[in-house]
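Re: the request from the purification team.
They wanted to know what the chain is likely to look like in 3D before they choose a buffer screen. I agreed to run a prediction and write the result into the notebook, where they can find it.
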Amino acid sequence: MEQAPATEQGRATQRRILAAAAALIGERGVAGTSLDDIRAATGSSKSQLYHYFGDKRGLVEAVIDHQSSVVVGTQVEALGAVQDWRDLECWADGMVALVEQRGSRGGCPIGTLAAALADTDERFRVALSAAFGSWREAIGGALVRLRDNGLLAADADLEVLITMMLAAIQGGLLLAKTSRDSSQLRTTLDGAIAQLHAYAPRDKRPARRR
């Protein structure tokens, strides 16, 4: 179990270890990252790791919380700005730009963790499912605003559309990661947005993006 440090120095050390652990696990996976690897990368002692995180399981749980907070927090902010079709395109552009900045490496930290852990540990699965649930809420908020602004039909099934959007994000990130080609994400996002356009009143459908 993660322990909250009593001092600012302790909190800084905990954050440093957690950031390094998240980076190593992102590169090597959970199975390929040992506590000794994290210790070597951070110059920390075994006693510090056990004090702040309990054991490897506790550290992985902290990494899940950390990555979920970072990824979902970024998406909540970006999707929170969506009021119209142009805003949605800007959100998609931002997603693709971020992948390009990373050389199409890494994929989605939450998706990567889910692929490795969802079938092996129920507590991890629940935590990752909650992260995706928060992401769904952020997408749903954007779609509700589009609907309220008359850009989506009142009877559009938002739950279906939310699932479609999240699947497009995850699939696109995975394809971009494995191909090292950000255009894979662009294609899936453009396809999902085009599907949303199909639920718009005819006079509110934007011209197809070239």
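For the purification team: The chain has a mean pLDDT of 92.
Please add any questions underneath this entry.
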